[in-house]
Design brief:
The protein is α/β, with parallel strands linked by helices. It has two domains: 133 residues, 3-Layer(aba) Sandwich (Rossmann fold), CATH 3.40.50.10240; 81 residues, Rossmann fold, CATH 3.40.50. Helix content is 20%, strand content 34%. The chain has five helices and 13 strands. The protein is globular.
Length: 215
């Protein structure tokens, strides 16, 4: 089984119950600064805590250190966000699967900055996804499989240019080798008709947003 890095960002968590189902046995848990609060609420201890640590109380840092967490502290005045530092760490450790939890919500600039991290060239070939327990996001450069519930909205957004050769299986409005244009909204609000959806692209980068239905 491939060991996956799971990074907890300092955004909002939509549903801790769903987040817990996303975790796998053997995952390496990484807290990006204040993201450690989500782990504590879930009764978990991160293997790594990284960032400038301005969003986590010192007593919590000491508690985690006593429990064996490796702490990497950076200056507050830095060029990278805490999430980017955590992502750099995961890449340095050669993980080929990375899940980022609670990356959305709060400040719009932080949310957009987190999403743009997916577009890093050095992430090509790595299965990297974001999830807050309500919405999941993945940048598709080749192909991807999504699991969900029939009726769940799926939106496909081109980034960086037009996306060619888009083929889907398991969506209400299928695409077969088609082009999605950067400045068009054709890919918004499709829906799953099966529990598993497959999406493939031949050229370009496609941002896929999966919204779970609220029950």
């Amino acid at each position: 089984m491939i060991i996956r890095a799971v990074i907890f960002a300092n955004g909002k968590a939509g549903d801790y119950g769903i987040l817990s189902t996303i975790l796998r046995e053997g995952d390496t848990l990484i807290a990006a600064d204040g993201g450690a609060k989500h782990l504590r609420k879930m009764g978990l201890v991160p293997e790594v805590l990284i960032g400038d640590l301005d969003s986590i109380p010192l007593r919590e840092v000491k508690r985690l250190e006593a429990l064996g967490t490796k702490v990497f502290r950076f200056p507050v005045e830095k060029n990278e966000t805490d999430l980017e530092l955590a992502l750099d760490y995961a890449l340095d450790q050669k993980y080929t699967e990375i899940m980022i939890l609670a990356p959305f919500g709060g400040r719009l600039d932080q949310t957009l900055g987190n999403i743009t991290l997916l577009m890093r060239p050095d992430l090509k070939g790595i299965d990297i996804r974001m999830d807050d327990g309500h919405e999941a996001l993945i940048l598709i450069r080749d192909q991807a499989t999504l699991e969900g519930t029939p009726g769940d909205p799926i939106s496909l957004l081109p980034v960086g240019g037009d996306v060619k050769g888009v083929t889907t299986k398991g969506l209400l409005f299928p695409l077969t080798g088609e082009t999605l244009f950067l400045q068009k909204t054709r890919g918004i609000s499709n829906r799953m008709i099966t529990e598993s959806v497959k999406i493939r692209v031949k050229e370009g980068s496609l941002l896929c947003i999966h919204t779970r239905q609220r029950i």
